[in-house]
Design brief:
DNA-binding, homotetramer, mainly alpha
Chain lengths: 240, 240, 240, 240
DNA sequence: TATGAATGAGGATTCATTCAT
DNA sequence: TATGAATGAATCCTCATTCAT
């Protein structure tokens, strides 16, 4: 053993420590991801009530107790999935902002992205219902609920910017863009939620399909937003 | 024993039976009503998960077992409240049909009724979320789910008729009235649902209030439905 | 590498080792003390069942695993507090032995010390209850239980010496001093234990206060021990 | 079928109902007794911590849930055993009151009964330790703790009456009988508790046996209570 | 029909202890 | 030696549902 060797060791240690710390961080994150994935699978399949922590634990090859190191309760795990879903949606919506299109076309694109997201992840919408149950609410820290809200706001922000853009460019009437964004967001969400709610609605009676319904809602909204002009008749036709 | 004896008995019984049957029917209905009332109180206050059959039983002074004579499961009891709510809403909506107004004004009235109903019974909207949970679904007979759907259809029927009337009277464009009714129903419902969902949404960020939001959505919808005419500009102003 | 090198190293190490060993010893003792202090705080506040190793670890800024390097189990940690308490009591009692007083006065002093100790550390008495639970006992090494007993014996030894002194000096009757010490010890201990046991006893019903009760018990005991008057013969008979 | 028959039936029903009610009462009581018996067996053998509700349930051939119909928690079940023990002791003590003996002799008898009780049921004394743990306390209704206290007071009442009798008959000095009863009760209890506490104490070091110890304590107490000779004045001064 | 005692599977959560680093 | 993440058995308790009366 030489001093150099020792120093090397010292050097290596520092490197090792750094690596260790990094790995720990990565492992933590991955562990959390593993749990979320497993939770997603089970909650999506079984719903909240019938899902057991045992099953989630089995699904990610961890001990049940380990889950509680990462999530305070079954409810928090559930709400975390909601946060996850809103994050994914936000990311998808953000891909629109950069496109070089007119505001009204951007809204159309938004709808496309939204609808595509729904088709990829219909279950995320089902998840959102439970958060309003008072008994669930009680068992989730405010902090987490706030995060949830923050994600939703980020989504609405995308809409907000498009409406502002339309207003600036003169194709939208001067409206309170933020109120308008909320209305659009709520409406889209509400329609999907309602639609998703019930297979009966969806399959047997409501022969209108979801995409059409959303498009129609958008047309109506655009009808309200757009500054009417000679092209009005053309639009009217497509809005049937 | 003779046939006459039997018939005599039969005759006597028939009166008694009739009375008994009537009383039974009345008692049954009332019993069922008592249970529903108690369930309503508890479910509204505690949510689905935290409500216990014991508490419901206590609330209607019946034995727990008795409830199961009238409702197959906790879930059926819960969904029955949804049926109840839709029935009440339908009744309220039906008070509109008879008014002698233009179709567009009728839609405005509908919204008023709807909103008033929501304000009286906000909890009914919260109830509806859970029905989409697969584990709840599994424990409710199709028959009951159908009843639920039927009530919703009856509500939409009111909208349908108004739209048809508007189309007939020439103030609405020729649209598929049924599709349109569904869109309006879904949108209104969706918005309220979404709004009701979350105190956060309601109180802190979404400074738009619900009634405004619904009115705006209706304006947009009317914008799409109404046959444009010189009065368009006037309408545009009010739709801001 | 040469032997000299090794020896050199050995020599250097020996100094270092000595220092290290000393420091280690000191650190070890302090570590153990830290843990005990934290355990004391938590156990005293929460009781045995509700105390968690996590909380103790947090209280002494050590990792949970580290505690297990110093104490084999939660139970040993608990019993160690009992040992600690008996050690403190023994030390207090030992301050009496040196006083130049009559045996009967010494016993009075003992009582004062004892009572003062109880008032300073009432919680130590509460701790002692659990040691009799078979499930606790099973999880503590005999060695530690013996240490516990040893401390108690040291306490009784103080009593024993006083009684022997009294016998030698002729003011106490000739009794088996050791038996007598045990009786006194057990009685005092028992009374305090019983008193400490239950807030109900203490506050509402038993209006006799503890010190009075102990004094009375001592008077009784002294009545039995003292040779004080002509009536001695009569009493001696009955006091077997 | 005759009217008489029907009336008979009516009569029988009332009888049946009476019988049913009685049987229900008896069954309830027995059920509760069954549970207590099983709990006694398990708690006595294993201690509080290692006892599981499952094991208790198995021991009385009832479902776990059933136990909770009769006892609110594991802790209440445990404390109920304490109540039971005090009740048994009280009953034993009450057999003394009727004897036609002098007060001092009665106290001797009391001790005999007490000691016999301890020998029959040493485990009841071990049970009493846990009640002072704050975490146990928290989980027991005040009502039950009061019942516990009430039983203890009933026991002390026996002592109280004996002392009063002794005072009345002139063989005891005029003391506050209730205070005195409490001291005697606490002392006896304390000694046994202390003795029972620890097999080590009992077996290896403390060669004094329990009965001797109790007798000695009683002698001392009697020494303090009895007015027995001319030297009384002298003693009275020191025993104040 | 009404009861409500009994059920017992099932659940979430805890926490003393271990062990790889 | 110190760590603290992971463990997973163990625990108490709940509560929808049943069924004998």
């Amino acid at each position: 053993m030489t001093v150099g060797h020792l120093m090397n060791i010292g050097g290596q240690m520092s490197q090792t420590q750094k690596r260790t710390a990094l790995r720990k961080g990565r492992e933590q994150a991955q562990r959390k991801g593993d749990i979320l994935r497993s939770a997603r699978e089970v909650f999506f399949k079984k719903g909240f009530l019938s899902t057991t922590m045992d099953e989630i634990a089995r699904g990610c090859d961890l001990a049940k107790g380990t889950i509680y190191l990462y999530f305070k309760s079954k409810e928090e795990l559930y709400i975390s999935l909601m946060v996850e879903g809103l994050g994914l949606l936000r990311d998808d919506l953000n891909t629109i902002g950069v496109l070089d299109l007119q505001a009204d076309q951007l809204l159309g694109e938004i709808l496309g992205v939204y609808f595509a997201f729904y088709q990829k992840n219909p279950q995320y919408f089902r998840i959102m219902f439970l958060s309003s149950q008072p008994d669930v609410r009680e068992r989730v820290r405010d902090e987490l609920m706030q995060e949830c809200l923050g994600r939703a706001v980020e989504c609405m922000q995308v809409l907000n910017e498009i409406i502002e853009k339309g207003t600036r460019s003169g194709i939208f009437r001067k409206v309170d863009s933020w109120s308008c964004a909320i209305i659009v967001w709520t409406t889209i969400n509400g329609i999907i939620t309602q639609y998703e709610q019930d297979p009966f609605y969806r399959c047997e009676i409501l022969k209108v399909n979801l995409e059409e319904m959303l498009r129609a809602a958008l047309e109506l909204a655009l009808g309200g937003l757009l500054i009417n002009n000679p092209s009005e008749q053309g639009k009217a036709k497509s809005a049937s």
